[in-house]
Amino acid sequence: MNSFFLTKNNQLHAEAVPMSDIAAQFDTPCYVYSRAALTDGFLQFTQALQGRDHLICFAVKSNSNLAILNVFARLGAGFDIVSGGELQRVLAAGGDAGKVVFSGVGKTEAEMRLALDAGILCFNVESAAELVRLNDVAADMGKIAPISLRVNPDVDAKTHPYISTGLKQNKFGVAYTEAVALYRQAASLPNLHITGMDCHIGSQLTEISPFIAAIEKILVLVDELAAEGITLEHLDLGGGLGICYSDETPPAIADYIAAILGALQGRTQKIILEPGRVLVGNAGVLLTRVEYVKPGEEKHFAIVDAAMNDLMRPALYDAYHYITAVEQEAHPTQIYEIVGPICETGDFIGHARELAIAPQSLLAVHSAGAYGMSMSSNYNTRPRAAEVMVDGETVQLVREREMVSQLWAGERIMVV
Ligand SMILES: *Cc1c(COP(=O)(O)O)cnc(C)c1O
Hints:
It contains 12 helices and 21 strands. By secondary structure, it is α/β, with parallel strands linked by helices.
C-alpha cells in the first residue's frame, strides 16, 4: 500500500527484503515493520512544522515496541502515554521524560508519582477530581505538576463510534463549558503549574474540518483564559489523523499541518501533536501463512496462522485490512473468508477476498502497524507473534515470539 512494501520479482518485499525470507527466518505470524516508513512519516511532520516551535509526541499505545519508540526517540520525538507502563517503556527505549505528555481518564496515584519522579513535560488532566488528586500527590512529593486540561470540544470526528472521543457523551476530557472554571481552580492549586491546553477528538479521521472546528473552539477558551491572566505555553492538538486502509482519502500530513497552522495564525504557543496511527499504521504488515483451505457450501475459508489475538481490529471494529498473497502463485483464484484458528465466529482477518492461494501460501495483512501488536492478547493460549524491523537490506528481530511457558509463568496451582 506504499513505497516501503512493494512487489518486486513476483514477491512482496519490505524495503529490500523478500517477505518469504522473513517467514523462513522468523516464522509466522510475524509483524514486519519498515524503519524507512517510520522515519519518512516522522520527517513529514517535522518538515511541515519547520520554523514553528513544536513537539511531535508519538502516541505509544498505537505501537509500543521498544524498537519503534527508539527509532522515534532518535529522531527527536516526544511521546504521548496513557499509563505508567507506557512511561516505563519510553524510558527503557531511550526516550526523554521531558518530552512526555500523559493522557488518560484514570491516572492512578502510583502513575502520577512515577511521572512526577521522571519529570514529564505535561499531565493532560481529564477531570476536576484528577486535578485535585494530582495537586495532592505533587504536594506530598514536594513537586509542582505541569498540567494541561484536556478539553472536550464537542465536535463530531465522523469516525467509528468506538474511536470517537471528542463528543459530549464521550468519557474523555473536561466539558467545554466547564473548562474555564476548572482552569481557575487549577490556577488556585499551589502544586500545579498550568502550561497548556489539550484536545484529542478521535482516531482515523479522514477529513480536516473536525480538527479545525476543534481548534477554533479551544482558541476561544485560550482567549478567555488570557483575559483572566492565565497564559498558556503550548497547545496540544492531539492525534487522530487517519490512514488509507482501502479507499479512504485522508489528508496528507503536509496538508493537515498547513490547515492547523492556518487556524493558529497569530498564535505563538508551542504546538504539540500526538500522532499514532498515521506514523505506524502503514509502516507495518502482519505476515501469516495459510494452514488450510476449507471449501464450504456457501463460502470458502482460508484458515491462517494469525488470528484475532494477533490483530484484533477486524473483530473489534469490523475494520478492513487489505490482504495480498506474498508471492504470485499458480493456484485457482477463489473468494475466501480469511479466518484464524480461534474459537470465535468473530475471529476473522478479512471477508470475501479474491486470492490465488493454497495451504502454505504466505499472506500479507497490510496497514497492520498501528493497534495491531499493541492490542494483541494471549486468547486461546496463543503466544504473541514475533516482530521484526527491516532497515534497507537488513532485518532485525525486535521482539521474540513468545513461548507458551511464558504465558503461565505467573500462575499458581492451589496448594491444597
Ligand atoms: C490514541 C490517542 C492518540 C493517537 O491517536 P491516533 O489516531 O493513533 O493518532 C493521541 N492522543 C490521545 C490522547 C490518544 O488517546
